[in-house]
Amino acid sequence: EVQLVESGGGLVQPGGSLRLSCAASGFTFRSYDMRWVRQAPGKGPEWVSAITFGGDSTYYADSVKGRFTISRDNAKNTVYLQMNSLKPEDTAVYYCGARRYGSSCSMEPRVDYWGKGTLVTVSS
Fold it and tell me: Which residues partner with 68 through β-bridges?
């Protein structure tokens, strides 16, 4: 069974740091791009960061650029999100997602998997 399990969330003060982890199983992790999406209370989902399947390229939303760092360890089937200088507006449930892009040539569909999320609360 495909599983993405997030961990590392919790309560932290403004300016503090947290490292989220997402452990993957049930699929070929190294073949999938990984991303983090968050959803604040009462708001829609917001894309946060992404990393390509080989870890060679990373992408960040403007709201977290310079503060967050995404990384992956394909040997451990795990993706991480290091969050520094946290702000109250970072409070959200953070979801880990996996994506394998399809190919019209080979008739392979795009595949997406999602975890259940971990709550990050930034407050004094």
Answer: 83
